[in-house]
Amino acid sequence: MRPYPCDIDEHIRQLTTLLKQSIEDGTLSNPLMIGIHSGGAWIAEILHQNLGLTEPLGVLDISFYRDDFSQVGLHPQVKRSELAFDVDDRNIILVDDVLYTGRTIRAALNEIFDYGRPAQVNLVTLLTRNGRQLPIQPDFNGFSLDLAGDERIKLVGPEPLRLVIENVSS
């Protein structure tokens, strides 16, 4: 595992600015924010505070919604999803740390739709990397990175937030 040199705070500031502009111009009127456990929830917590959103922050654990659940099994630290609001006809800001294959986002959308039917869902990611398997792209992205097939990047935190690259072939 090696650290990836990146100014996470600067990328979060950029995302905050883009989201504020979209809220102010009415593109994202009266949004609700949902973070995907765990890295996406950490980023969402910061963005939620930076944007001054008044409704509670939602958190999803998509473990039971994954399409590879039968292959990878249950992770020992499954958390509860917490959506203390009605998603029907609302503008949702869905936050994840790393967009890789798109399968996590697909699972998150499935779970959100089990709670209701939002007006729209906008995806925010700190980082997108190569390797997409599903046609999913972020509406707001901090930065992009190409990695080798045997590498993965993950957000470690919450204090301090940092990105690390792991070699998964060993």
Explain this structure to me?
The chain is α/β, with parallel strands linked by helices and 170 residues long. It contains 4 helices and 8 strands; from the N terminus they run βαβαβαβαββββ. The radius of gyration is 16 Å and the shape is globular. The protein starts with a strand and ends with a strand. The mean pLDDT is 92.
Main sheet specs: 5 strands, parallel
Enumerate the spans where pLDDT stays under 50 for 5 or more consecutive residues: none
- The strand order across the widest sheet is 3-2-4-5-6
What overall geometry do the principal axes of the alpha carbons give?
globular
Overall pLDDT metric:
92
List the helices and strands in order: EHEHEHEHEEEE
SS-based class: alpha/beta
DSSP summary, beta strand count: 8
Q: Give the % helix.
A: 25-40%
* Strand percentage: 25-35%
Q: Calculate the terminal CA-CA distance, rounded to whole Å.
A: 11 Å
Alpha carbon gyration radius = 16 Å
* Count of alpha and pi helical runs: 4
How would you summarize this macromolecular structure in one to three sentences?
The protein has 170 residues and is α/β, with parallel strands linked by helices.
Secondary structure layout plus pairing:
Blueprint lengths: L1 E2 L4 H17 L7 E5 L2 H13 L6 E3 L8 H4 L18 E9 L3 H13 L4 E10 L10 E6 L5 E6 L5 E6 L3
Parallel strand pairs: 2-3, 2-4, 4-5, 5-6
Antiparallel strand pairs: 1-8, 7-8
